[in-house]
Amino acid sequence: MENTAAALWQKTARTRIKTDRSWGEKAFLLFMYAFIILFSLVCVVPFWIVLANSFTSEANFLKYGYQLFPNEWSLDAYNYLLHGGQFLTSYSNSLLVTVIGTVLSVVITAMFAYVLAHPKVKYRRILAFLTYLAMVLGGGLVGFYIMVANWLHLKDSLWVLILPYLLNPFYAFILVAFYKSLPYEINEAATIDGAGDMYLFYRIIVPISTPVIATVSLFYAIQYWNDWYLALLFIDNYKLHPLQLMIRQLMSNLNVASYVGGGASYRVAAPTSAIQLATVCLTIGPIVLLYPFLQKYFVKGITIGAVKG
Amino acid sequence: MGFIKEIAKHRQLYVLAVPGIVFLALFSYIPMFGHLIAFERFQPVKGVWGSKWVGLNNFKFFFGGHDWLRVTFNTVYLNLLFLLFGLGFAIALAIMINEVGSKIAKKLSQSFIFLPYFISWLVVSLMMLAFLSTDGIMNHWLQQAGIDAVNWYQRVQLWPFILTFVYVWKFAGYYSIIFLAAIVGISSEYYESAKIDGATRLQQMVYITIPSIRSVIVVLMLLGVGRIFFGDFGMIYGIVGDNSILYPTTDVIDTYSFRALRQLGNFGMSSAVVLYQSVMGLLAILLFNRLAQKIDPDSSLF
């Protein structure tokens, strides 16, 4: 009798612990869901605020400031922006720099990385080390500035926004890691057929590397599209401003009307704050539109980079 | 002799590397001569070799004031905050995303969290303005809660934490992808046997997940520590810009040398600051690579 009671008690106690534990587990899971949802919101809400407030009038802005849900909608800022000369100029500058820069960068990086990864190249380790060292140390701001401005005379030209970013060591190493994972037999087969190394590279290696090359291209494209450092250092001429620098100009105090209008005169006052936001919306527009695509390739690229250290 | 022979034998391959080598020479290695300017009173007209040598004058000027201490402290302190909270938060996030069962929730949250990584610091800066300006969202909320509005861009002491928050916001997605990739690679057998032994979720995280991704954490830490003397110019200058009220807590070596060059036109002093930064940076890398070999022989960088 006594024994069975004890056994029974033990049994219920055990089940109680089990349910307690699963209650705790459930609460914990709930907490994790809440945390992730909350942080996701924190990540997206600023985008919403920029978008929503870009559609308000200046009067509304002066009265209420930034709002989560503006109580008045207006296209003033977009009208103003698209009728002025500066926005289209800046947009085409950014587009040009991004397209030309990405193509050149990818070609140079893909070729360079192939040499770094090729087992027949005796000096590949030295080259890799020099590339790594360049990534870590860099040339230093002043030397770099003098090189670009005084020796290469690239100030106030669109090339200055392209050339200094042609080879990103980090992206090169992503490609090196990929090439190294290719079977060596590819080389041997081609060599037997009497193909040269260059022919082999363009005809065989490049086609099978397309997914990684696509990833690296997107890395470069985003870098060129988002950069304003080079423009800040080397571009004074408004006509050559890329979009990012246009945003910066709009944020610093200056005559928005004459900057955005590009000489055209307006009878209405410029909706200053909304213009800033509208410019930002149109600048990050392509990124948001291409986002599903970008995300997929970036995740792939980052993962390769991470695995290879 | 061997050198020429090697190049000639594989000339087709070396030719492929030529544009890259020219690039590295032009934009990384030749500019290193710029460090000489740290010992000159540089005049652009006279060039690097024609300007007057002034010995250590530029360094005396830089180390004579208090600025160097301030910018060095800010650079290191901010980078430590970014590294600690950036990685810490991303690890927590990656583990949670991994634990959440629903596939849709996983995909959706990852998409949202990764989004800020893709925008420039200038855009981030404008978003911050929407929240923190005097008539921004933050102050609206405060006023609704009956609290006085805060002039955020004047509250110097808050900025290291504001910047840390923004850093976490922008890079949590990026780092959590790296950690997730490592977590997915952990064998499920560990978790199954832990479950049989009655380990809770939390215990599994602490005793299985975190130790398994240790080497990834160490590598990222080391990469960060190696760059501890290099501030993120784009971030700091994009957000703080020329708002000198915030300099006491936000001015880093990179923004300082930038201003010396572009606003004061003082090439010598700017160059001295950059050289100081490079030397400190090199020491940091060597020191912590040594440390890495001791902690975890697999994760040393070279």
Helices and strands in order:
The complex is a heterodimer of chains A (309) and B (302).
Chain A: H1 2-53, H2 58-64, H3 76-83, H4 85-117, H5 124-137, H6 141-151, H7 169-181, H8 185-192, H9 197-208, H10 210-226, H11 229-234, H12 243-251, H13 256-261, H14 272-289, H15 291-307
Helix pairs in contact in A: 3-14, 4-7, 4-10, 7-10, 10-15, 12-14
Chain B: H1 2-9, H2 11-29, E1 40-41, H3 47-50, E2 52-53, H4 57-64, H5 67-99, H6 103-114, H7 121-132, H8 137-144, H9 159-184, H10 188-196, H11 201-212, H12 214-226, H13 233-239, H14 247-250, H15 253-262, H16 267-295
Antiparallel strand pairs in B: 1-2
Please give a structural write-up:
The complex is a heterodimer of chains A (309) and B (302). By secondary structure, chain A is an all-alpha fold. Chain A has two domains: 52 residues; 224 residues, Orthogonal Bundle (MetI-like fold), CATH 1.10.3720. Helix content of chain A is 75%, strand content 0%. Chain A has 15 helices and no strands. Chain A is globular and about 75 Å long. Chain B has 302 residues and is an all-alpha fold. Chain B folds into two domains: 39 residues, no CATH class; 243 residues, Orthogonal Bundle (MetI-like fold). Helices cover 71% and strands 1% of the residues of chain B. A two-stranded antiparallel sheet of chain B has the order 1-2. The radius of gyration of chain B is 24 Å and the shape is globular. At the A-B interface, helix 1, helix 4, helix 5, helix 6 and helix 9 of A face helix 2, helix 5, helix 6, helix 7 and helix 8 of B.
- Examine the secondary-structure arrangement and name the CATH architecture of the largest domain in chain A: Orthogonal Bundle
β-strand percent of chain B reads under 5%
The count of β-strands of chain B is 2
CATH topology of the largest domain in chain A: MetI-like fold
Mean pLDDT of chain B: 89
Trace the largest sheet of chain B across and list its strands: 1-2
Q: How many structural domains can be distinguished in the coordinates of chain A?
A: 2
Number of helices of chain B: 16
Output the helix-strand order of chain A.
HHHHHHHHHHHHHHH
Q: How would a crystallographer describe the biggest sheet of chain B? A: 2 strands, antiparallel
- Biggest sheet descriptor of chain A: none
pLDDT < 50 runs, ≥5 residues of chain A = none
Instruction: Specify the CATH class of the largest domain in chain B.
Output: Mainly Alpha
Output the CATH topology of the largest domain in chain B. Answer: MetI-like fold
Distance between the termini of chain A: 66 Å
Unreliable stretches of chain B, pLDDT < 50, 5 or more residues?
A: none
Helical percentage of chain A: over 70%
Per DSSP E runs of 2 or more residues, the count of β-strands of chain A stands at 0
- The tally of structural domains of chain B comes to 2
